[in-house]
Design brief:
Largest sheet: 15 strands, mixed
Strand content: over 45%
Number of domains: 2
Helix content: under 10%
Radius of gyration: 21 Å
Structural class: mainly beta
Distance between the termini: 44 Å
Number of strands: 30
């Protein structure tokens, strides 16, 4: 994709949107040739980006986008079979995409000091806090929140939200009780990056806290770490709701994952959970189902159940 805006000596911003028709579900796009930084297609329909062109760019910018549609995708035999069936439904169909770009003259960079963006129906808006981007997503299903810079902040997913968090190779960290809390609704984490809980506390320090009404899906290769330099516990993920882990590296001072009360945790092949002490624990009526992955140790407490298919 090539952007070129002429006839001005001022700074320029651009807003580009690709709108897909009949996009195969398992066709993925990436910003890098190594295919590690996913370009998230919102609701299988919109791929959008905003940018800023300085005078030194000579009013022209090439933006390469890479794609991959691999065979037999999935984290378990049943998921691979399901995805193959989904892929075959596109036989004989034609995918099309419409690309639109708008440019504007500006006197300064409007994206300076912006740490996150929200994409809704292919329209991108940037914000100076991650929580503001999450709040702006509202109840729009599949709204994409993208990290634009490393940030120290504690955020909450609430009000039946359904959000895709694109890590974009960035880090969000906090010294509070939790860095990310899924209070209600669904949070899907994609791409490479880090979520860290770090501090010095006599209480818990948690990277991601999933409450009873929350659903957490982890895709990609995010690093999730719960550190605590104090006497309290450090946990990567503390789950009371439902957590599906299909990628990433999860660890903590004591626990990589704790599954509480009636929580449900599903762990798949592309996961590494490695820590010095206990990694996965269950309490009361909690259930952990393991389909694969690398897990250093398992610990079962109370009435919890571990179902291990490895």
């Amino acid at each position: 994709m090539k952007l070129m805006l002429a006839g001005t000596e001022t700074l320029l911003t651009y807003e580009t949107k690709m709108t897909f028709t009949n996009k195969p579900k398992n066709l993925k796009f990436y910003w890098d040739s190594n295919k590690t930084q996913e370009a998230v297609v919102e609701n299988e329909t919109y791929l959008a980006l905003n940018g800023f062109i300085t005078l030194e760019d000579n009013k022209k910018r090439d933006i390469p986008i890479y794609w991959e549609w691999p065979l037999e995708t999935g984290s378990s035999p049943s998921e691979i079979e399901e995805n193959d069936e989904i892929d075959t439904t596109f036989i004989g169909k034609t995918m099309s995409m419409k690309i639109t770009t708008a440019g504007a003259q500006v006197t300064s960079n409007p994206y300076a000091n912006r740490v996150a963006s929200t994409t809704i129906n292919g329209e991108i808006t940037t914000y100076n806090t991650v929580q503001a981007a999450i709040n702006a997503a509202g109840n729009n299903q599949g709204a994409v929140v993208t990290l634009l810079d490393d940030i120290q902040e504690s955020v909450v997913i609430s009000a039946n939200q359904d959000i895709v968090l694109n890590m974009n190779e960035k880090t969000i960290s906090s010294g509070k009780y939790s860095t990310v809390r899924v209070e209600d609704g669904t949070l899907t984490i994609v791409g490479n990056g880090s979520i860290k809980g770090e501090g010095n506390s006599t209480n818990d320090i948690i990277a991601i806290d999933v409450r009873p009404n929350g659903v957490l899906n982890i895709l990609g290769n995010a690093i999730i770490t719960g550190l605590n330099q104090g006497s309290g516990t450090g946990r990567g993920i503390n789950n009371y709701g439902t957590t599906n882990i299909k990628g990433g590296n999860i660890s903590g001072k004591i626990y990589g994952i704790t599954n509480q009360s009636s929580g449900k945790v599903n762990i798949y092949y592309n996961t590494v959970i490695s820590i010095v002490c206990n990694t996965v624990s269950t309490t009361q009526n909690a259930v952990i189902t393991i389909y694969g992955g690398t897990i250093q140790s398992l610990y079962n407490a109370g009435n919890g159940q571990i179902i291990d298919y490895r």
